[in-house]
Task: structure prediction
Amino acid sequence: MSSDFETYEQDFGTLTAEVTSRIGKIPKLAGDEKKQMVVGVEKQLEESRELLEQMDLEVREIPVQSRGMYNNRLKSYKQELEKLEKDFKRSRIAYSDEVRNELLGDDGNSSESQLIKLREERAHLLDNTERLERSSRRLEAGYQIAVETEQVGQEILENLHHDREKIQRSRDRLRETDANLGKSSRILTGMMRR
Result:
């Protein structure tokens, strides 16, 4: 199981290194080449998310004693992916500014107040997006805790069931012993009378 996790780790490392390199190139490109680069990075980020999901599934299969180390590694990879996604958003904003300017034929006629307003709206949207992402991460963490709690509860119930069976067997043995003692007592009483 841990070998699968390590394979996913290697794939994730290779993929994120390539994404980092491509994100740095986006602002320097133009036209179709830039569009293709953006689409390619989006696909790679999606692949990275899928790899993290696979790693998460692998971690759940690892025994509880060893799970902590793998959880920490997975957490750092998730943070790395979040940073990459933010960097990608920033590079896309620069890209969308250029596209807007091309479409509008920005010749200096747009007023300064409109540009300021657009930037404020964009900043507001980015803040809202980040809040949503943080909420999603919290929900995901809560879900993972609930799953782990359910597993622990299941183990406790199984242990209680086994303990109940042991107690039941002990009670049955005690009754048998009590019955045997009763018989022995009657036999001894009968022997004493003779």
